[in-house]
Amino acid sequence: MNGSLRKYNTASLICNAVVFLTTAVCVIILLVLPGVSKSGFDPFLMFTVESNIFAGTVSFVCLFFNFYNIGHLPGKTLFPKWLNVLKLVSTSCVELTFAVVVVYIMPGIGIRASFSGFNFFMHLTTPVVSILCFVLFENLEMKLPSCFFCLVPVCAYGAVYFYNVVILGERNGGWKDFYMFYRNGNWLLPVLLLLSATLVIGFLLTLPGFIRSRNRRNK
What we know:
This protein is mostly helical. The chain has one domain (3-218). 72% of the residues lie in helices and 0% in strands. It has helices at residues 3-32, 47-70, 81-109, 111-114, 118-138, 151-168, 188-218. Helix 1 packs antiparallel against helix 2 (47-70) and helix 3 (81-109) packs antiparallel against helix 5. The protein starts with a helix and ends with a helix.
């Protein structure tokens, strides 16, 4: 492994370990400590928790390749293409969580409540470490259309949320509108904003790898 890739791999390994271990500890605590959520609903229904689990799972897979790369030449990138795309998508999910917290949630509950306790790890630590890891060390080659894959988990969660909140309803065994996206029956605007934000985040995450791969071809 050449010098640059060796440094990238080491940094990636550390970041992936932090994301995986942080997520694993938070999930274990949520599972074994009843009443840890004071909001009156299952925290595992929330996109925040699910996006962190997704990011932690992908980071766990990446760790196998990080350790493998220590003694082998990985080529132009640290991971195979399918794993690069998965890392892109999982990173976009936790960055969307961070964006929603900063723009939508924090103005209502304050910065302390937004980033204290579990929220410090799920709203801040995982998103920050994930974006630094992917943009600086892992996204060495990426095609711009890959950003559309970021819409898949958001649309999937959105469909389940819409069904349980709007169609089924809390009185009939559905979910409480804990994100308050269905206030006054106006659900179309939040959907458009979230999908637009997801595409913008995906594009910005994809761009460094696209630029790096284009510069390599031009040399």
